[in-house]
Amino acid sequence: MSFELSREHEEFRRTVREFAESEIAPHVPKWDKDHHFPTDVVQKMGELGLFGLTAPEEYGGAGLSAEDGPFTSLCLAIEELGRVDQSMGITLEAGVGLGINPIQTFGTDEQKQAWLPDLVAGQRLAGFGLTEAGAGSDAGATRTKAVLDNGEWVINGSKQFITNSGSDITSLVTVTASTGSSEGGRPEISAIVVPAGTPGFTAEPPYDKLGWHISDTHPLTFEDCRVPADNLLGQRGRGFAQFLAILDDGRVAIAALAVGLIQACVDLCVEYSLDRQTFGAPIGRKQGVAFQVADLEVMLHASRLLTYRAAAMKDAGADATSTKQFKHAASIAKLYATESAVTATRIATQVFGGYGFMEEYAVARFYRDAKILEIGEGTSEVQRMLIARGLGLPVE
User: Fold this and answer.
1) What is the CATH number of the domain that holds 344?
2) Which residue, 14, 183, 235, 254, is the most exposed by fewest CB within 10 angstroms?
3) Does residue 194 share a domain with residue 156?
4) Any idea where the Acyl-CoA dehydrogenase/oxidase C-terminal domain is (predicted)?
C-alpha cells in the first residue's frame, strides 16, 4: 500500500501553490481587512481549471478518469489555497461541492447544459441553500415552502450562512424547501434551482463574520419567488437525501482545507522560531517551543493521511460496501483534521506570543478562520454521531 502521491499530483500541487503565492498571498491582508471578494481572482482560478477537476469534458471539465484521482486533485487544490488563505479555499470547495456537484449529480441533461459550462469554467458561482435559523441537520424543521402554481414553484422562506450566494458572479442558488408532506406527516423536502436575479429572491447584505472575511456569505430571503416547475433538481421529496450524499464529499474537502491551515501554522512557526531571539538564542532552541511545533507536525501528517485516504476511496468508486466505508472515512477525516486545525492555530498564536494577537501577522487571521471548520458541512458532534453509528452503536 502506497501513501505517496503520484508524480502528476505533485506537479499539480506545485502549480496551484505557485498560483496561490503569486495571485492571492500578496493581497490577502487588504482583502481580509476590507472584506473584499476578488471575483477576478476567482475567475483566474477557473482559467486554471480548478472548478472543473471533477467535471466531465462535455461541460468543460478536466474529464479525469478514476485512475487520475480527480477528487484527490480537488482536495490538493483546496489544501494549497487554504495554506495561503482559508476564504479562497472555501470559495473553491463550496463552488464545486455545493454549487456544481448537486447539478452534476442530480440534474437533468437540460439543467446540466444550462448551468454547468459557466460554473465549471469558474466564470460563475452557485450556492446551496439548506440552513435556516431553526433547520440544518434537522430536515423536518425546514420552514421554507414551495408550492406548485400554474407550472411554477412559488417559494417563500429564508436561508442563512449561504456561501457564494450573493457575489457579482453568482448565477444560481439551489434551495431546499418543503413541497408537501410525506407518509407519516413529515415534510417532503425537495431541491429547487433559483437563478440569481429572479424576482422575489434577495441575497441580503453579507454577514460580518468572525473569520473567512474574503468569502461571500449571505442570508437569503424568498417572497413569492416563482421559478419554472422544471427547476426541480432531482426527485421530488429527495432534496435532503440528495444533499446528505453531496455532503460526504464536502467533509473530505473541508478536511483538506484544514490540512492547508495546519501546514501554514507549521511553516509560520518554524520560520518564526528560527528568527525570534530571546536570551541570546532563537526560541526554537527552547523545548517549550520546539515541542509544540513538533506536535503541529504530527497533527499535520495524521490529518493529511486521513484526508488523502478518504479522497482516494472517493476516487476508487463505490458499491454498497465501499460507500459505507467512504462515509465513515470522510467523517473521521473531517473530525480529526478540523479539530486539529483549531488546536494548531491556538498553538501557533502562543508560539508567536504578543505578535500572534496582532492582525498584521497571518496567525491571527488563521486563528479567526479556524473555528468554522468544526461547524460547517457537519459539526464535530454530528461527525462523532456518524462515526459511532458506523461502529454499530444506536446513538441518537
Assistant:
1) 1.20.140.10
2) 183
3) yes
4) 237-391
**How close are the terminal C-alpha atoms of the chain, in Å?**
36
Domain boundary pick from 93, 125, 157: 125
Question: Tell me: the pLDDT tens digits for 284-306?
Answer: 999 999 999 999 999 999 999 99
C-alpha separations of 81 from 41, 42, 373 in Å: 12, 11, 15
Given 3-state DSSP classes, what are the helix, strand and coil percentages for the chain, each rounded to the nearest 5?
60, 15, 25
299 lies in some domain:
yes
Distance from C-alpha of 241 to C-alpha of 258, rounded to nearest angstrom: 26
342: which residues sit within 8 A by CB, 6+ positions away? Answer: 370, 371, 373, 374
Q: Note whether 82 and 89 are within 8 A (CB).
A: yes
Domain that holds residue 15: 7-125
Place of cell 495571485: 23
Task: Report yes or no: 300 and 262 within 8 Å, Cβ to Cβ.
Answer: yes
Could you read off the pLDDT of 172-193 as tens digits, one per residue? 999 999 999 877 778 899 999 9
390 membership: H or E segment, kind and range: helix 380-390
298 and 315 part of one domain: yes
| Residue 41, domain member (yes or no) | yes
* Structural domain count of the chain: 3
Look up 377 and say whether it is catalytic: yes
Q: What 8-state DSSP symbol labels residue 50? A: G
**pTM, entire model:** 0.96
Residues 76, 315 contacting (CB under 8 angstroms): no
Secondary element (H or E) of residue 295: helix 287-315
Q: Among residues 183, 188, 377, 396, which one is catalytic?
A: 377
Cell of 81: 489555497
